[in-house]
Amino acid sequence: MASLEHTHFYERVGPRKTAKLWRCKHPDCTHTLRADLIEGKRSMCECGKRTFIIDAAAMQRRRPKCLMCRDTKEGRAAQSISNLLDVMDLDKETPIEPEGFTE
Ligand SMILES: [Zn+2]
Ligand SMILES: [Zn+2]
Description:
Bound molecules: zinc ion
Shape: elongated
Number of helices: 1
Radius of gyration: 17 Å
Strand order of the largest sheet: 1-2-3
Oligomer: single chain
Order of helices and strands: EEEEEH
Number of strands: 5
Number of domains: 2
Largest sheet: 3 strands, antiparallel
């Protein structure tokens, strides 16, 4: 069914250590995947804006998130780079001042 073509929204079924299955939580999708095959698969993030590849860090969560939605050091670094690119796109005349990046 063509209408079902989508990037799966993977969600782990069961606790982290013993889960044997991941499923897609799209309402019209019955796709499941064995837990030992999930790593390296592309999933849609809950934000619905970005897809990402499920890695070991993402597998820690029942509902993995894209890098931009993760509250981790790597996620925040990706967010600040994205913000920087946004700024550069919106106003190319704005000088980039390193001291503006202290948290
Ligand atoms: Zn699906
Ligand atoms: Zn996201």
